[in-house]
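Homework help board

Subject: predicted structure for assignment chain

Our instructor gave us this sequence and asked us to write out the predicted structure in token form, then describe one feature. I got the tokens but I'm not sure how to describe them. Can anyone check?
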Amino acid sequence: MCVTCGCSDDGETKITNLEVSEDEHTHTHTLADGTVITHSHSHDTHTEASQVHAKIHGTTISLEQDILAKNNLIAAQNRGWFKGRNILALNLMSSPGAGKTTLLTRTINDLKHQVLISVIEGDQETTNDAKKIQETGCKVIQINTGTGCHLDASMIDRGLQQLNPPLNSVVMIENVGNLVCPALFDLGEFSKVVILSVTEGEDKPIKYPHMFRASDIMVLTKIDLLPYVQFDVQKCIEYAKQVNPKIQIFEVSANTGIGLDSWYKWLTEKITNMSAVITA
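My token output:
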């Protein structure tokens, strides 16, 4: 059991490179003493892998350490890695169904001739969203967290080794759908971006204040549905500013394109000024 957020750590993280056969996959296990064990196997070697799993998960070691401190150390290393390669990394977070993947695929398609974008896709299970992103022509790595409710810095470190994003580019990290735990874990990103849809309720910023306090950007999505839902945009903005006076807000529809110009302007300005911003 994770003492930081309560999610189970007895599952396994699976990192999938969609350019490699799905019959072959990599599992990464973090033991209680912090040791990381990674191994790959195909379905043909599942019996052998099961024996490895049993040995790993049968090991119990009691630890007293600050899990977030260890995460933050790896996050700092990730941040240095991004900086050294002039890569702008954004951590996209939301509740399930808020529209992260739709916004991401629309952004990639609209900016593909201006910006090099790679994606780390986080979900508990399936490669469904990663496949949608792959259809845009974008490089993508899928991280499945099993029972885990968030991505952490170690997962990003291992995902980047497979993703190998180009210099002077953008890495979009689509976190697991959850408005609580992802806010606690620094991944080494330049900015946290929280995505909220008008179908969720305008009081989310005060119900989940840490998420909105930790984020630099709030993207209010699905505004094309405003005529059909009860959602007070102004009240939502007031709540968000109440929690985080510095948060920047974009109102968009990824389906119709409304408001996307402002989101794209912010993104491209950050890319253009990336060297100066990251160095500062």
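Reply (TA_rk): Your tokens look well-formed. For the description, you could write something like this. The beta strands are 13-17, 24-30, 36-42, 88-94, 117-123, 139-144, 170-174, 191-197, 217-221, 248-251. That's the kind of observation they're looking for.
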